[in-house]
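Our preliminary data section would be incomplete without showing what the modeling component actually yields. Below, a chain of 178 amino acids is followed by its predicted structure, encoded as tokens that our downstream tools consume directly.
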Amino acid sequence: MRGKALIFRDATVNDAELILNLRTDEKKGRFLSATSDSIEAQQAWLRAYAASTGQAYFIIEREGQAIGTVRLYDPRGKSFCWGSWIIADGQPASVAMESALMVYAYALDCMGYEQAHFDVRAANEKVWKFHERFGAKRLRQVGDDFFYELSMDSIQSSMERYKRFLPNGINVLPANKS
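Predicted structure:
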């Protein structure tokens, strides 16, 4: 899938090292669920993902370079969860907004979802403030996590408000059959 400056492509076993490096980075990984540092475990997870349904795991690319990950999962009726949103250091701030808009465009336009649900570590203030500016409603706190819901109206309002980051929507590319 192509946005304005970003491409999302399906994660494969070949991405195990990249994903593992991002997830086990001390700074990036502190707000993620624990991850084994085993490349074999990451490859096994990616093989299981490839055989699964109900989720999408994307590698985020910019200017031909893999710069991050994002995942859509945990479908509940017309709602989806998203996370594993990791962007490599040194990227422009616009990458966060464009990638979030691409997630919502794909979820609504291609997968038929009408709302989102997700959780964010309470200590990850930068990310939960981002989601709240986007219109997410904090439902509760359980332990170290805030739980959110984002309605269709809020998604559409934010898609319009931040349209400059994704002015032409997304272009879903045909799957690579090689």
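The longest helix spans residues 94-110. The mean pLDDT is 92. Preliminary results of this kind motivate Aim 1 of the renewal.
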